Amino acid sequence: EWIEPKVVNAIIHALAEESGSLLVFLPGQAEIRRVAEQLNAALPSALAASLQVAPLFGELSLQQQQQAIAPAPDGWRKVVLTTAIAETSLTIEGIRVVIDSGLSRQAVYDPNTGMTRLVTRRVSRASATQRAGRAGRLSAGVCYRLWSEDQHAQLAPFNTPEIQQADLTPLALQLLRWGCQSPDELSWLDQPASSAIAQARDLLQQLGA
User: Fold this and answer.
1) In this structure, are 118 and 178 located in the same domain?
2) SS3 state at 112
3) Is this model's pTM higher than 0.85 or not?
4) Potential cystine with 56: which of 82, 110, 165, 197 (Cβ 3.0-4.6 Å)?
């Protein structure tokens, strides 16, 4: 199911019903571009006349990112279309409404193929709470979640730690450089799987590292 039409409808509804600017969470750049195109085509002229639509994701230049997080000019509103980059730390002045697609895109290592691929997944409940908290950082806010209460109850409580789903070959090489023969010699916030470390070392041996 395509998420973009649902997101566009939610944006138009929020613009009509709420005040202030909007922060819209989408899984990736492709969805951001499609939502921007569909929104520009669907916006009533009365709303479009004083509205800025700004993308925000990691591959943008610093100047483009700064433009996205800058407050809207007086008399204008802003719709910031973002990935999980805005989930923490960023505070965008004037954001009163968050629209959350409930999706994120993560890099996941597949040990069967030895390749890392991008996977679109449901966010965790912790991430959903974090995203909702971006609304109304400086005043009361509203969050639109584009999923049901039943679906919310089925979300994972927390995100999977990156170390448990990433390619650990660079880490294994770094540990060997430090003279660390086993990850058990170190204290970890999240312990890497011994099988993943073993596979990473096998690959290093095959590469002659």
Assistant:
1) no
2) coil
3) yes
4) 82
